Structures are given as C-alpha cells and as structure tokens.
Amino acid sequence: DIAWWYYQYQRDKIEDELEMTMVCHRPEGLEQLEAQTNFTKRELQVLYRGFKNECPSGVVNEETFKQIYAQFFPHGDASTYAHYLFNAFDTTQTGSVKFEDFVTALSILLRGTVHEKLRWTFNLYDINKDGYINKEEMMDIVKAIYDMMGKYTYPVLKEDTPRQHVDVFFQKMDKNKDGIVTLDEFLESCQEDDNIMRSLQLFQNVM
After folding, report:
1. For the EF-hand domain, which residue ranges apply (predicted)?
2. Widest Cα–Cα separation across the chain
C-alpha cells in the first residue's frame, strides 16, 4: 500500500530529524559525507545510529573511546593503542571525535586504496605529527599493539619481540639512514616489501 509506505517513510524521516536536532553535535549532511567517503547514504545512516547509540552527544572523547575499544580486547591492555588511535581519528586535535571524523577514517581503513590506507597508517605512527616517524614512535605503536593483543597470542611472544620487530622494519624503511622515516620512504618500503605490507595489514585488523 503506497499510502502506508509513504506514512512510514515520513515518520522515519521525522524521527531522524528529531534525533539529529537533539544531539549536541549534528553531523554534516549525509549527501556531503556520501560524496566524501566510500559509503552509501543507507550505510551512513546505519553507522550514524550506531555511533549515536554509543555517543548520544554526537561526539566521543578519549576516555569513552578507550572504554569502547577495550571491550574488543578483553585479554590485553588496549588503553595505550586506543590513545594513539584516537589521536589519529581526531584530525583537528580538539580532544573529541565527531561522526564525520569517525566515518572518514573508517572509509579509508575499510574501502580506501592501498595508498590511502598507507598514508593513514603513517599518520598513526607519526605520534607527534611532525611529518616523520622516528624509531621511538614506531616502537611505541608496535609495543602498544602487542600489549593490546595480550598474553593469549600464539605463539607466545617474548618480551623483546616488539624491539626486534621494529629494528628490522625501521632499518628497511629508513633508506637514507638519517634516523627518521619520511612519508615517501614509508610508502615505497611498504609497497616493495611483502613482509612489511603483511604486517601492516595484520595491524590494521586491530583498528
């Protein structure tokens, strides 16, 4: 029945509009986000409902982000990695992540090109946002990932495994041996070395 369908459509539309006006932060128009991401309008609506369910104010702060993320890794300590991940999502460095920030990052991680995913990963590893990755930054991220995976990883990891992992990868990436990895070095190393790419894909699975 067309009249009933139209009534349902109008009711849902009104409910959506009411929901959007009741939250503290109203996201950009879904049409605009659809153009900026690799999600359909319907997918964005579903994502928004889920985001709003977890974050009724329309934004998520770091503590809430850590609490949500910790649920996925009950056997390890996800707090440090969640901190770094939050900073990568918080592109404007305001201390809060809006729906637009969340869905833009998710679009890259789930449906972006290899180049887009690598650029995003570089930004994650560049903790102080100076445009380079140093060995300490890489060590901090890798150790945070190992801590998050917990003691139930197989095979059981030795305490010095993260350091060994970083030593090998950093040596391969720092092509001119100046102690830092630039974006170009990072992109080139990842795309020419299958071992590095496989490890990054494994790490991306925990995002």
Report:
1. 77-112, 113-148, 161-196
2. 71
Q: Per-residue pLDDT tens, the chain, 207 aa: give them.
A: 444 444 454 555 555 554 544 445 556 678 899 999 999 999 999 999 999 888 888 899 999 999 988 888 888 899 999 999 999 999 888 999 999 999 999 999 889 999 999 999 999 999 999 999 999 999 999 899 888 877 655 455 556 678 888 999 999 999 999 999 999 999 999 989 888 887 776 555 555
Return d(Cα 177, Cα 164) in angstroms, integer.
18
Burial class for 194, CB neighbours closer than 10 Å (0-12, 13-18, 19+): exposed
- Ordered by where they begin, the domains of the chain are 38-112 (1.10.238.10), 122-206 (1.10.238.10)
Asked if 138 and 166 touch (Cβ cutoff 8 Å), the reply is yes
Give the phi and the psi of residue 132 in degrees, each rounded to 5: -135, 160
Provide the β-strand partners of residue 181: 133
